[in-house]
Write a structure and sequence with these properties.
homodimer; alpha+beta; Formiminotransferase-cyclodeaminase, Chain B, domain 1; Alpha-Beta Plaits; seven-stranded mixed sheet; four-stranded antiparallel sheet
């Protein structure tokens, strides 16, 4: 498998094409790739999907933290979504050929560099925290405003910039939450026909911490821009949780309160499982078994082929009786880093 | 782009796990990969999806033609689907990094080898015929039974086995239709609530040749096994034709005749466009814009990365001032064949 690390930086900035363009430039300069971006004015948020070889994605993530500090001033920022930083959240996701441990190691390296090189304090969350599983909700309570005058003792950053104080966040960029986690479905469902109070109760009942759906985090938001009410959600580990079944369950509960889901919005890329499940329902396939999507199997095929070809070549180099020219060895090693699982590196402590 | 050729062999054999296992073995021995297989007892048909580097898929296709002759006797075969051969249809599809011309060249090479090495007469169809665009319907009219006693003058094979006669097909394996075409959606919709006569009229109205939907081929089938009526369809060039919109149009017409579509079955792999369209409808995404599927962009990303890494390496070899050991040159060339578009070869006439 070709190793693919995904970074999903969430920036505290609404729709701004110039910002997205600059972000894309920094990502490409680091040799990684932007697969998708979403922005929302009401949320005051922009989310990128960045993929590539792990070391390149790490470099891209640090470059994006620099950009956030340069471009975003939280004192002037408004939006319904809670946030503590300009680069508010930076999850690293093992997309292919990597373990959650690899993503955790990447998160630690990136967190260290953001504190040291960018000068922004860092909290680790999810699989990157110690103990594991610290939630974003607990870090973001009260937002940037609750931190800028002085950080409460229970919320002190894990990593500080050189000369930084545990009681102070960056005056304009706050702090950054850096995490590692499995693939997640981030989605918003617009709801009509229920009061704000009912929506908040529904959200409380649906979320895992209220005894609802496992792995589901839910915010009830009332968004002024388009006069809409919204369930804004993250479904963790979307590959194992049958996300379309979760959609149906939410739709059922909204309906039983007399409301209606009018629209779904996926932030970033949709896990194939969501599309396949929804398509199986709409097309009424046998036993509602989703038809296998061509591209998911194609991605596996391509990854396998590239890795096999690279492995065979490295084997030929190892067994070569004659000396291999030095310039060629360097090029071969570059290819090995791109197409093969890199040898395990020591995690940064 | 890593070049990926797809072959979708249609065999005249119903569900038979041993046959599928043998087919898989032959494909893997040729260095290609089976991504999917479907079988249907009523149709008396088994369809494989095979992918890989072009030369490997060509070898796999010839190996599968051998297997079909060894294992299938059309004199004992029954099924609702029209067919003229044991390996009835062999389309080659340029899945990634290849043109339709490349697939046409592959079809000509494979057709020549099936006639010469396997001893089965071959017709070319779709983009592989001369003039282009010959239809399967015209080749398969009357089935194997119409050919085995003597081939009508208008249906003579394009390629004959050594010593073969244009008036004779293979006594147990018939002939093989070998073609090149873009990605196609093959699907069956089960229909209730309309008579057989109405279904046949609907099929005639829906198909392109009856002035219906462009690129749509439709058979009305009454299948005894599960007492169902079926519209069995191919939608050509599924990537540009919005396959879910076609589904909705068919559903609407069935409904206006008082019937109902109870079930959809996709043969082989579903083009992402079908799943994305159906999911957008079911999830009510904004403007029914499908959420981008992770794996379709991931496949592009992987292909790009592998090709770039391979290109950089080949460039390093070309610019290497010292001599490159011969064993290494062979391994490099093998990788080039796998991961880069191969240099244009002369088509076989």
């Amino acid at each position: 498998m070709i190793p693919v690390l995904e970074a999903v930086p969430n920036f505290s900035i609404g729709p701004d094409p110039a910002f997205v363009e600059q972000a894309r430039d920094r990502v490409e300069a680091a040799g990684a790739e932007v697969l998708d971006h979403s922005s929302d004015a009401d949320h005051g948020r922009t989310v990128l999907t960045v993929v590539g070889a792990p070391a390149r994605v790490e470099n891209a993530a640090v470059a994006l933290a620099h950009l956030a500090v340069e471009r975003i001033d939280l004192r002037k920022h408004g939006g319904a979504h809670p946030r503590v930083g300009a680069l508010d959240v930076l999850p690293l996701v093992p997309l292919a050929g990597l373990s959650l441990e690899d993503a955790r190691d990447s998160a630690h390296r990136v967190g260290n560099r953001i504190a040291a090189e960018v000068g922004v304090p860092v909290w680790f969350y999810a699989e990157a925290s110690e103990p594991r599983g610290r939630s974003l909700a607990e870090l973001r309570r009260g937002g940037f405003e609750a931190l800028v005058g002085g950080v409460p003792p229970g919320r002190r950053p894990d990593l500080l910039p050189d000369g930084g104080s545990p009681d102070r966040v960056h005056p304009t960029a706050g702090g950054a939450c850096v995490g590692a986690r499995p693939l997640l479905l981030a989605w918003n469902l617009d709801v009509v026909g229920v009061s704000g109070e009912t929506l908040r109760r529904l959200a409380a009942e649906l979320r895992e911490s209220g005894g609802g759906i496992q792995g589901l985090r839910v915010l009830a938001l009332e968004l002024p821009g388009q006069r809409r009410s919204q369930l804004s959600m993250n479904l963790e580990n979307a590959r194992s949780r049958k996300p379309f079944a979760v959609f149906e369950e939410i739709e059922r509960r909204v309906k039983s309160e007399g409301g209606r889901v009018t629209r779904t919005e996926v932030i970033g890329l949709a896990p194939d499982e969501l599309l396949e499940g929804a398509a199986a329902d709409r097309l009424r396939t046998l036993d509602r078994t989703p038809p296998p999507a061509l591209s998911s199997l194609l991605a596996l095929h391509l990854s396998r082929r590239a890795s096999e070809a690279a492995t065979a070549l490295m084997e030929a180099v190892r067994c070569c009786p004659e000396p291999v020219p030095a310039t060629l060895v360097a090029a071969l090693e570059a290819m090995e880093r791109e197409l093969l699982n890199p040898p395990k590196r020591e995690p940064v402590e």
